[in-house]
Amino acid sequence: MLMTRPLTPRIKNWSEYYTTHFWLYRKYGKANHCANDPNHQSLRFEWASVNGKYSKDIKNFRQLCVPCHRKLDMTEKSRKASGLRLVRNTNRRRAVRQFPLEGIFIKKHKSITHTARELGILRTSIMNNLSGRSKFAGNYTWKI
Length: 144
Hints:
Layout: H1 14-28, E1 45-49, E2 61-65, H2 66-73, H3 76-82, E3 96-100, E4 107-109, H4 112-119, H5 123-131, E5 140-143
Antiparallel strand pairs: 1-2, 3-4, 3-5
């Protein structure tokens, strides 16, 4: 079994990590389900360390699908160590104003994406209306 070094700042002793995972694979085989939710459909499952200790004790490990494993590993501390942002960049949001075809102001929305999700209108339709490519989007006209 060939293992490459995963990108996680949590692991201090890589040889312990590799030998423990090799022991898991030999003794218990490949992970084949998600312990968080048996209904998760995934192409890949992984053995995940629950407490961050890589001892040869099955109680320290769970079988998880990849998204559940990433959620378990990505704590606030590990995000800061890896340099990932906790919050999306809010500086790029553009507020948009909603008008019916008659031209009377209805509502100001905080962003194009938020508006599209709230009203069920395609984001690109709103953007096309703002840029002048279309006359309306979702029976409304939009202005920044």
